[in-house]
Amino acid sequence: MVEAIEQADKASQSVALSAQSISSFDMLGIAVSTICLVHCLAMPFIITLLPILGWQFLAGKLAHRILAAFVFSFAMFAIVPGYLKHRHKNVLTGMIIGLSLVAIATFFCGLFLPESWELLLITAGNLILVATHWHNHHLTSCTHHD
Prior knowledge:
Oligomer: single chain
Number of strands: 0
């Protein structure tokens, strides 16, 4: 995976994102991961109110998949270009682990894994992604790197 990203770096030198753009995507990534966390943690408590409000779609798999798509998009638009600038592999590792947990929770719980694992996996994945976006934001905002 690292080699593929480094090859993409060579191919995309002319389309490099500025540190400000990466920072903006990191902030959006933090926001979306947090929204996903709040959605998943609050759902057991508010699920009975959703039909009254006409928001029952928020309890379905489609809502989870849409949130996951945003989480994936902002991670790819912030963390990958950030990694290509600062080359800290722990940021790339955090993204891969966080996105993997979100993907497993979104697409495999209830099918191949117990449904009861979904909240744990999605929470862990999003917390890792929030921390990774924050670290990436810090690294791309610095003028020097360790």
